[in-house]
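Researcher: Next sequence.
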Amino acid sequence: SFGYKSVDDYYFDASSSHSIEHVQTPLLCIQ
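Model: Next structure:
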């Protein structure tokens, strides 16, 4: 379980979607 209570907790930590709004410099994301 790597210290996470659920798979949702893991994906929240692994995702940048909740922190991307705080980026102050130009950013190019290639998927």
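Model: The longest helix spans residues 7-14. The helical segments are 7-14.
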